[in-house]
Specification:
About 35% of the residues lie in helices and about 15% in strands. The chain is an alpha/beta fold. It has a single domain, classed as 3-Layer(aba) Sandwich (Oxidized Rhodanese, domain 1). Helix 4 links the parallel strand 2 and strand 3. The protein is globular and about 30 Å long.
Length: about 100
C-alpha cells in the first residue's frame, strides 16, 4: 500500500517566526502554502539541505513516518523553533 504524503513547507517556519502555530494556521490560506513534490524532497535530502518534521501526534509517528523525520507534534513546535533554525536548512513539514 502506498501512502500519500502532503509535503508543505510550513509558512511560519519559512518566516522563521512561528507565533501561535494553530492560530497562524487558521489565519492562513493553506491552499497557497508552498509545496514540494516527493522527488524534490528526495533531492533535498540527498543534498542534506532539508529537515523533515512530522507534526502528527506520537502514536501516528510511531505507526509510520518518513525515515529520518523528526517527530515534533504541532502543539510542541513553537518550543523547537530555535533548534530547527539552528540547522540552517529548509524545513519541510508533513501531517498525512
Amino acid at each position: 500500500m502506498r501512502t500519500r504524503f502532503m509535503l508543505v513547507v510550513a509558512w511560519a517556519l519559512v518566516a522563521c517566526g512561528l507565533a501561535a502555530p494553530r492560530a497562524a494556521a487558521q489565519d492562513m490560506d493553506l491552499d497557497k502554502a508552498p509545496r514540494i513534490t516527493v522527488a524534490e524532497l528526495k533531492q533535498l535530502r540527498a543534498q542534506n539541505r532539508v529537515v523533515v518534521v512530522d507534526v502528527r501526534d506520537a502514536a501516528s509517528f510511531k505507526a509510520a513516518h518518513i525515515p529520518g523525520a523528526l517527530s515534533i507534534p504541532l502543539d510542541e513546535i513553537q518550543g523547537k523553533v530555535a533548534e530547527l533554525k539552528a540547522q540552517k536548512k529548509a524545513i519541510v513539514t508533513y501531517c498525512a
